Amino acid sequence: MKFIFSSQKLDLKKSSDFPNLQKFDLSCGSILLNDPNTKISHNGLTTILDGFLKDFEKKDDLEARISASEYVFETWPVKDTITGSFCSMIISEEKNEITLCSDLVNIYPLYYLKKKEVFFISNSIILLGRYSGAEVDKTGIVQRALGPEFMNIGSRTILKNCKRLLPGEWLHFDLKGNILKRKFDNSLYQNMSGPFFEEGMLEDYWNHYKKETELCTAGFDQVSIALSGGIDSRIALGSVPDSKEIHAYTFGSPENYETGVARKLARIKGAEHFSFSNLSLYFPEKPVLKNYIKTTEAIKLNSWLELLENIQIEVKQPLLLGELCEGLPARNIKKFNSAHFRKKNFIKYYLKKDQFPLSSPNPENFQEWKAKKRQLLVSWFDENWFKRMEMEGFRKEVIKNTLSDIEEIFDRIEAHNLPYAELYDELFSWYTFTRMELSRQVNICNEKFYAFSPGMSIQMLKKTSNIHPNLRLFYRFANKMLKNEPDLRPFRNVPTSQIPLFPQQFPDFLKIPAWGIRSRIDDWLVKRMIKSKDPSKRVKLFPGMNWAKIYQLPDLEERMESYYQPNFLGDEYAKTFIHLTEKRKNFKSWPFANMDIMSGVALNMELELIKKNS
After folding, report:
1. Could you tell me the EC number(s) of this protein (predicted)?
2. What is the DSSP string of 197-215?
3. The pTM is what?
4. How far is CA 10 from the centre of its chain?
5. Residues 156-190: b if buried by 16+ CB within 10 A, e if exposed
6. Which domains are seen in the chain, by residue range?
């Protein structure tokens, strides 16, 4: 779904290449929108909603949407009966005021820009750039063009003076774009459980998860789900009401081990399963790639194109995804998730289930932690990259601005008064990598489908964050829920894709060594393939994705060159990644996934699309 609002009238001709855009004139401006189902008008308010936002006290679905919108127009944070994963714009023509708000992690982007006397709001940086004519922001461009994650930090975007809503942010504007009120939802981790399981804890969590799925699929008889072989997507699958017809989709070859795991899970649930594979879509022809960049702005992991290019649906319907934060297994508490820690403490924490040694937060360890994050971030801003991007002389300015940007994230974390210092890393990851990168999994699907992650909703994520880390780490909570809850129990007999052969219900003293052995064999097989320079050789103990094969397209270099015609990032920048692609093809460089390569490609095409008709 894509929309743009402007306080001045909008000309549809500027966006004629966007399919299905319709114009809605208001007394205070214009809205262009390609999905009228995401717009509701109620009691003098006009709401545009990306995602879902509902008051589950209301039984009627439309009433639930209206009640929630009317509440958040005036009040923030939300009350306990309002939930959703969303970004929303709510306009009052009577009051000449606008509210923008986001869920706790800001999965769905929402941008705003005031240029002279005109106010723009959009969930498309391309549309906003076109209609506003805003200049590019050099710091924003560099952040997107370079590692470690190729993403903007804080509220910064690639357009000058254009900001993106922060996680949990609520802004109230007048129609000139002046901020009247600003609030944040700091409700994560605020009602932490004890370190031991309590009666009713699992049932309460699971019942609420099912409620979230019921809310975001209400009104649809058919529901789709992106199904992998992992834990998070089988939890999402188990939450779908039995009354729904379920279509489960897995990208990758039908022969892949993970595809087989997903197929078994779908069969248990009574879902119809589909899998698709097309390795040429990892470097698609430019028109295909350009279309997805224009309509989703979420290109990076092109595995999703294997699904989206092959799925044909007549009516737009919900597509469910697993929880993107990896919050239930606490995978982003870095201290306890390193391979070294797991090996060293296998008996203590996997077998004996001892409590993890959590530390109290204090100003000193928070400052030390922030210093390390700053150092890592700016370490990527090497002078050579600025030369390649023809931005010599801007390095100091970019570093200064980026350090200011990361303070926005630090301030959001500090406002939570976290109960344990180890949670600094977790919330930082949610506010950066999940928000900017993993969110692409939802947003790339959100044009063909209504893409939702029930586990990312406000009330669900609060519940997850309030489970003591001692219960979340090493899948303790997830495993116990799979064991105890009848809806999930049948899935325990199916192994995960990470730990083959052994069903999920088997004890850790069998599963974890099997995981380690499989990983070692996979590493050896990959090294053998690289040494032989033969991409047809086996690369995994169990059939799976062979990234080396995506680089074997006969016209790979021509496709890469076409992506940078025209080029907005500098000739040497483009050549760097074109050469990297060739090196991976010829095994002169490790044939990793191509997400780093596609990051620059996507950025360049976004800039090309902004310039079109602007």
Report:
1. 6.3.5.4
2. --TTHHHHHHHHHHHHHHH
3. 0.97
4. 30
5. bbbbeebbbbbbbbbbbbebebeeeeeebbbbbbe
6. 3-184 (3.60.20.10), 201-330+437-493 (3.40.50.620), 334-415 (no CATH), 546-611 (no CATH)
The Cα–Cα gap between 254 and 232 comes to 21
Burial of 119 (0-12, 13-18, 19+ CB in 10 A): buried
Indicate the angle between helix axes 231-239 and 257-269, nearest 10 degrees.
20
Answer for the pair 188, 427: CB distance below 8 angstroms, yes or no: yes
Which residues touch 411 (CB under 8 Å, ≥6 apart)?
A: none
Residue 258 corresponds to which tokens in the numbers above? 């993970």
CA–CA separation, 577 and 288 (whole Å)? 20
Tokens 């005036």 appear where?
Answer: 74
What's the DSSP call for residue 280? G
55: three-class secondary structure by DSSP:
strand
| pLDDT attached to residue 614 | 57
Question: Two tokens at 419?
Answer: 């109960």
CB 257 within 8 Å of CB 544:
yes
Strand partners, 51: 86
Q: What is the pLDDT of residues 352-369, one digit of tens each?
A: 999 999 999 999 999 999
The predicted-structure confidence for 488-534, as pLDDT tens digits, reads as follows: 999 999 999 888 889 988 999 999 999 999 999 999 999 999 999 99
- Which residues partner with 273 through β-bridges? 248
Q: How many CA atoms lie within 13 A of 274 on its CB side?
A: 14
Provide the mean pLDDT of the chain.
97
Question: DSSP letter at 159?
Answer: B
Number of neighbouring beta carbons within 10 Å of residue 114: 18
The single-letter code of the amino acid at 75 is: T
Beta bridge partners of 250: 275
Please state whether beta strands 272-276 and 179-184 pair in parallel, antiparallel, or not at all (unpaired).
unpaired
